[in-house]
């Protein structure tokens, strides 16, 4: 189809979009919806934005999809027919080919955002919930004592507990940890890193969680 230079824009979410966050939240805007990208074997790759998903559809690179369309993207107008192109995006999109081995289940990057999400914004010393500006990354075995900046050695801590623990281990400070720090699996990371997961996507991801996962409840 010969199309004018495509002016892609979102025309809204379908009735099947069920954002986890309230509709009033700016994150529930259609442009904030992320689509779950799989390889052709159904293995989970990553979240992709609607622009990247649209490219997959336009290139004919979509192998199969799951769920009812959640976004519609209008493209350019065909000069011959006068019809405007329309691509409907599905919440879960498998693209042709299979992923390189290293692209599957990579270690989630350790960031404060990801760490605080893992620990549900709770200080793992006093157990209280705090808003993000009041949270810190605490090294269980302090860096000065050879501790490493890795998932298994970091916990969310409030400012007060972090400064009280200071340069000591939990044992030395007599501040026992409320939970053992762990490295999230890639699936756990995908759930924790997106606050706007659609119902189809959440069901698909939760079906792949190990039973031990705190997120499988
Ligand atoms: Zn605390």
UniProtKB/TrEMBL annotation:
Residues 110-163 form the HNH nuclease domain. The keyword Transcription does not apply. GO terms for molecular function: endonuclease activity. It comes from the Bacteria. InterPro entries: HNH_5 (IPR029471), HNH_nuc (IPR003615), NA-targeting_endonuclease (IPR052892). Keywords: Endonuclease, Hydrolase, Nuclease. This is HNH endonuclease. The keyword Hydrolase applies.
